[in-house]
Write a structure and sequence with these properties.
By secondary structure, this protein is an alpha/beta fold. Helix content is 43%, strand content 21%.
Length: 228
């Protein structure tokens, strides 16, 4: 049985109780809050193992909560699953760009939410042990365990998804990956996001890497690779 602590942020009481019931039945400890402001206070004072976050909240909305948590060094590594009725691709991309780990749309299946939650927590547990080796290429130094990227000695602030994408490409320089392979390698096979979202992540990653971004090459009709 699981024992991880989940912070559920949802202003609709029936949905909050549905999430709480299904997670507690599987052994998770759940704290439920109904506003973005309360979510910020709880996340900073008692950091959970994962946050399930609605977007449409009274006061501070979910995207603002996600942005502020990912910009705070103390909370930036907290996994976040967005759970919302806003299912347009633009909304999904916005959440991913801010660093969310997954995106589940309403109406939702509790079993699907649990599967996504387990996948995110499993990936986070495996990262420090299985991917601890420092990666160096083209003036970039990538520290997976510390979630740190240096370009010519300068620290670069990446979202969790951007970091995993860069690390994924860097481990196989010269290899060409399709968008589907990138989605599976970075997020897991059960990650239900349009492959077009990969293009948005690549654009943002290149911009943040500055001159080093030129080494992420587009292979027309196929996908992307990191030049070796």
């Amino acid at each position: 049985m699981a024992n991880e602590h989940v912070l559920a942020v949802e202003d609709e009481e029936d949905i909050l109780e549905l999430v709480r019931y299904n997670l507690e039945k599987e052994g998770y400890r759940v704290t439920g809050v109904v506003s973005g402001e309360e979510a910020m206070r709880r996340a900073r004072s008692q950091p959970p193992d994962l946050i399930v976050l609605d977007l449409m909240l009274p006061g501070m909305d979910g995207l603002t909560v996600c942005r502020e948590l990912k910009q705070d060094a103390k909370t930036r590594d907290l996994p976040i699953i967005i759970l919302t009725a806003k299912g347009e691709e633009a909304d999904i991309v916005a959440g991913l760009e801010l660093g969310a780990d997954d995106y589940v749309t309403k109406p939702f299946s509790p079993r699907v939410l649990l599967a996504r939650l387990r996948a995110v927590l499993r990936r986070r547990r495996m990262e420090p042990a299985a991917e601890s080796d420092t990666l160096e290429i083209h003036g970039m130094v990538i520290h997976p365990g510390r979630h740190e990227v240096l370009v010519q000695g300068r620290s670069v602030d990446l979202t969790a998804t951007e970091f995993r994408l860069l690390a994924f490409l860097t481990r196989r320089p010269g290899w060409v990956f399709t968008r589907s392979q990138i989605v599976q390698g970075v997020q897991g096979e059960d990650y239900a996001v349009s492959e077009r979202a990969v293009d948005v992540q690549i654009v943002g990653l290149r911009k943040k890497l500055g001159s080093a971004g030129q080494y992420i090459e587009t292979v027309r009709g196929v996908g992307y690779r990191l030049k070796d």
